């Protein structure tokens, strides 16, 4: 069976989702069920265990892997502190590193991300770093102990699709870790395309959460990820420059048969 | 339930497939089952009912709608003769008009296609014309009695994808008949994209038949078409120029909370 | 010398421009001078020889070829009448056929365009038909006596670029008449691209007339057309899948030379 | 007058060229003259002043700015040594930093590039670092004293065009230094596009050197760069979703005027 393996965790689903931007937390369990995701990311900031208010975690099924992210961290040190806090709060030992000091494009800081990855991997975390696609950075993340590499397709929340295709394809071809395309994927067709390229998985949030029907859109992404993965495994037919008839063109009409 | 309606025929599947180019006819039933298609096209030329050899039709399940195509016709007259022959042979009254006199790109002849459509529609055929995407031609096909319009995405067999997106989108927006994107679709992601654009269905042959595993690739296309359709119905989130945080960025770290 | 030959008229410039949409007629002579165009199109409607008001023709230098267009014609008959009127008014015997009955996308009617071309070519006009890119239509235009073929890149006035690249390239490769890309070109880079593809010329209006500085933008398009044409004639270097060093990478540093 | 200002050096030309891959060194002076470049890069390795063979420098006109590059350097230290060597050899104090340890895609190492930039800028070099497009790296290069930033469009020598458009545009919008698009530009239209995006200049080598006629292709690029720059300064007309008539469509034909 074709499974996504992240540090020995064998996953059937190759769609990871985020929890931000949903019109209501109450819709999240249905989205998760419908899209069959097994890994859900959330900002540690939004997890408030001692609160009297409902906690985001109450909406995540128990068998789902939590992937706390370090959203809000502006450097490696802050990311490390947030990760440790998440673990202390009982969120487990997975962490998605987000180090962002740019408020306009929300682009990650590759250098600080490498640092945070190294520290947290040594502390036993399963580290999934979000990064600007860059081969040398990805190699350093491998060395630093990352469990997967998460290059962006386009700035967070833009729904622009995989605008960094050239660079992401190189990571897929060269890096011996799962490549999970994160940020920018705005339509199921784009998720399918990432999978056809050979990505191991995709992470989607805005495109699901801000669609008109998030529960159904979750389903659409789930189908698209399976479609793309199945196509990748079945090896696609080559692109040809000129036309090739699907049906025989040569001429029974020309042979007096009619 | 969301069904594709072609002249009162209500179809669950929005994936039509072709039968040419498969490595062996014996694989066709499995492909059909796996991709759940309900409409299968074949060149009339390849249907040979009186033959001692196995007939292509033997490989099409009984509950599948046959869509004989007029492949080989170079003008309206020949297309009409082939369509009538198909009906006489017991292939039913659906017909896909292909009028092609160009051997290099296999591009359809819109003008002759309109003529053939008009004649055959009057004779009670359910006519699905293959055409070069063109708004005025599509309007004339509507007037001629077409049951759907099948614009090409790229020349047949090229797997180049929907290179005529601009023109196909206009047909989807303006024509009050199902638009079925035919020819050129090479990957499931492209089929999903056609559906996201609002196409009613897609027809795929080469991309399935010449992949390494046609049975699985049929499944991949089936999933992709469902993904794209579901996304279309769920209304996609808008594309934004600048980044928008999925998770709150503002600063609990900055408030001395840690 | 590399000249554009339209029915024996040898032209140095491969940029044709339109006269609509300029903020003021008074700017037109400067634009023409700056962009070095030799062929200028205008709607016959706007030419009003008997008028006391200033006539558009007053702004076109004497040595410029006038290309009256049949804008406003909804069928072949109307186009023919407008063309004859233009000739009677002294606009010469060039004519750009525009037959448009669609008010939203302003897409041409290929079938009526063929009819008008045939009639006018027989009457001695130099006929340049505007058309939706379509190989069979282009072949019929050749037979009808067209002097060039003008496929659209995108709907008029959209500045979207050459969205019909696949179909236009086929015309360039297959049709033995000058192919002039008309409508949709929004930036000089897109004009250059059309020329690199092998187009004989481009026609630009909106992108020049509605830029902030039409005189300078005319210059920009003129340079771009020359750039693209020169590149086409110099044969471009091939696209490679993998990187190739521009400079020697092998190592003097590794040989103890430093 | 519109000039490119690199550390007070005011340049008329916004086309920088490389010297590798030409079929013969003898063609280089003609290319330089024809494309009007004022800055020429070469691998320090290829400069051999003491040689009895003809030196590459013999083919560079005296008034051209030399931009030695550190091609062959695998880390900051090697880049620094090569830069110093170039200066000692009389190549002046400009340097293009290339730090590449990947032999397949020849992608730069942003982290080592920042280090080399910092050291060399302090030593008085005018430093132009070649980099993988990345906002945070660009900001660090500014801090390190770079004179310009040179993001890649695609891997060196591929002629694929600006595949990193999304990321390069962000650098153009956010970084207060000239952005010079380097590597990947394969056609003049792509150079024009970079300039329309707001790039300050482009560097081209393979596309000129390996075309069939490098002297003419140099001219083509020169024209394209001017076209793109002129368009950028003239502000391009906006892209519209729907068509807008260039000529008045309303109907004199409908008013009984004919």
TrEMBL record, chains A, B, C, D:
In Gene Ontology terms, what is one molecular function of this protein? thiazole synthase activity
State the UniProt keywords alphabetically: Cytoplasm, Schiff base, Thiamine biosynthesis, Transferase
Task: Name where it mostly resides.
Answer: cytoplasm
Q: Which residues form the Thiazole synthase ThiG domain?
A: 6-248
Please cite one Gene Ontology biological process associated with this protein.
thiamine diphosphate biosynthetic process
**Gene3D superfamilies xrefs:** Aldolase class I (3.20.20.70)
Give residues annotated as binding 1-deoxy-D-xylulose 5-phosphate: 157, 183-184, 205-206
Q: What is its EC number?
A: 2.8.1.10
Q: Which GO terms describe its cellular component?
A: cytoplasm
Q: Which reaction does it catalyse?
A: [ThiS sulfur-carrier protein]-C-terminal-Gly-aminoethanethioate + 2-iminoacetate + 1-deoxy-D-xylulose 5-phosphate = [ThiS sulfur-carrier protein]-C-terminal Gly-Gly + 2-[(2R,5Z)-2-carboxy-4-methylthiazol-5(2H)-ylidene]ethyl phosphate + 2 H2O + H(+)
Show the InterPro entries listed in the entry. Answer: Aldolase_TIM (IPR013785), Thiazole_synthase_ThiG (IPR033983), ThiG (IPR008867)
Q: Active-site residues?
A: 96
Q: Enumerate the subcellular locations listed in this protein's record, separating them with semicolons.
A: Cytoplasm
Q: Could you tell me the superkingdom of the organism this chain comes from?
A: Bacteria
Query: Into which EC class is this enzyme placed?
Result: transferase
Task: Please give the pathway this protein is involved in.
Answer: Cofactor biosynthesis; thiamine diphosphate biosynthesis
Describe the protein's quaternary organization and the partners it interacts with.
Answer: Homotetramer. Forms heterodimers with either ThiH or ThiS.
Q: Which family does it belong to?
A: Belongs to the ThiG family.
* Biological role: Catalyzes the rearrangement of 1-deoxy-D-xylulose 5-phosphate (DXP) to produce the thiazole phosphate moiety of thiamine. Sulfur is provided by the thiocarboxylate moiety of the carrier protein ThiS. In vitro, sulfur can be provided by H(2)S.
Output this protein's name.
Answer: Thiazole synthase
What is the source species? Anaeromicrobium sediminis
């Amino acid at each position: 069976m074709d499974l996504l393996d992240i540090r020995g965790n064998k996953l059937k689903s190759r769609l990871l989702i985020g929890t931000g931007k949903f019109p209501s937390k109450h819709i999240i369990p249905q989205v998760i069920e419908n899209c069959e995701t097994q890994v859900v990311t959330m900002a540690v900031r939004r997890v408030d265990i001692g609160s009297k208010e409902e906690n985001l975690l109450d909406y995540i099924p128990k068998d789902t892997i939590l992937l706390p992210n370090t959203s809000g961290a502006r450097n490696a040190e802050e990311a490390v502190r947030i990760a440790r806090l998440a673990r202390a709060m009982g969120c487990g030992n997975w962490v998605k590193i987000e180090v962002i000091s740019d408020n306009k494009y929300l682009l990650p800081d590759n250098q600080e991300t490498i640092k945070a990855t190294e520290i947290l991997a040594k502390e036993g975390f399963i580290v999934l770093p979000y990064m600007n696609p860059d081969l040398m950075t990805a190699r350093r993340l491998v060395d630093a102990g990352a469990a997967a590499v998460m290059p962006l397709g386009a700035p967070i929340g833009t729904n622009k699709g995989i605008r960094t295709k050239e660079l992401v394809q190189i990571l897929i071809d060269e890096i011996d870790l799962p490549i999970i395309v994160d940020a920018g994927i705005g339509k199921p067709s784009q998720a399918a395309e990432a999978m056809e390229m050979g990505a191991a998985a995709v992470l989607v949030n805005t495109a699901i959460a801000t669609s008109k029907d998030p529960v159904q859109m979750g389903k659409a992404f789930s189908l698209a990820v399976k479609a793309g993965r199945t196509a990748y495994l079945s090896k696609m037919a080559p692109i040809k420059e000129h036309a090739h008839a699907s049906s025989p063109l040569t001429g029974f009409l020309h042979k007096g048969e009619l």
